[in-house]
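RECORD TYPE: inverse folding
INPUT: structure tokens
STRUCTURE:
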């Protein structure tokens, strides 16, 4: 591949899916950036930091790293499976019981703290506007970014302080609410336009 091909903003991957049909995954840098920002707000890793610190404060650094890897893996897999399989997966997310340290990374940190209702809903809405590949990539990058932040949870918590963490989390909530309003407004606009055209 020449230099011109290497710097292209858009790449197309084709993956074989059910019974030989093909799913085209278009990766556009512009679309990825739009999806990344919305997913970053939905994941709200800063808001999860205090819970992560509280749940892992008695553990060794090595054990914390293991939990971060476990939580990021769980969050990424659950998000991707849900995005591909659709709303039927919601029935599988009923989480009951108390978690011990062996499953702490998967539940409750991976699901539902990282990949929760906000991420799943945002993902489905984004898939109606962007390609599957863009949404999956944006989701995966954000879950990995959350893991990196958890690795440095102690330093970030000390830097921002309790009030700082709460402030950043509230800002993320406001951004998520504004995104939701934008999507609802867009949906109403299309509904009214279709009604007027009939």
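DESIGNED SEQUENCE:
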């Amino acid at each position: 591949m020449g230099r011109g091909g290497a710097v292209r903003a858009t790449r197309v991957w084709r993956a074989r899916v059910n019974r030989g049909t093909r799913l085209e995954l278009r990766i556009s840098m512009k679309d990825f950036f739009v999806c990344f920002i919305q997913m970053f707000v939905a994941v709200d890793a800063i808001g999860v930091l205090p819970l992560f610190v509280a749940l892992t404060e008695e553990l060794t650094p090595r054990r914390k790293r293991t939990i971060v890897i476990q939580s990021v893996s769980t969050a990424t897999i659950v998000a991707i499976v849900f995005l591909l399989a659709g709303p039927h997966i919601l029935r599988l997310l009923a989480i009951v019981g108390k978690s011990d340290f062996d499953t702490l990374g998967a539940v409750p940190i991976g699901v539902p703290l990282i990949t929760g209702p906000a991420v799943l809903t945002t993902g489905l809405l984004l898939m109606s506007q962007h390609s599957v590949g863009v949404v999956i990539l944006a989701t995966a990058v954000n879950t990995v970014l959350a893991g990196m932040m958890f690795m440095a949870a102690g330093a970030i918590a000390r830097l921002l302080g309790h009030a700082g963490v709460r402030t950043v989390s509230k800002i993320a909530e406001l951004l998520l609410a504004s995104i939701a309003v934008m999507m609802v407004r867009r949906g109403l606009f299309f509904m009214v336009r279709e009604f007027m055209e009939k």
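NOTES: The chain is about 70% helix and 5% strand.
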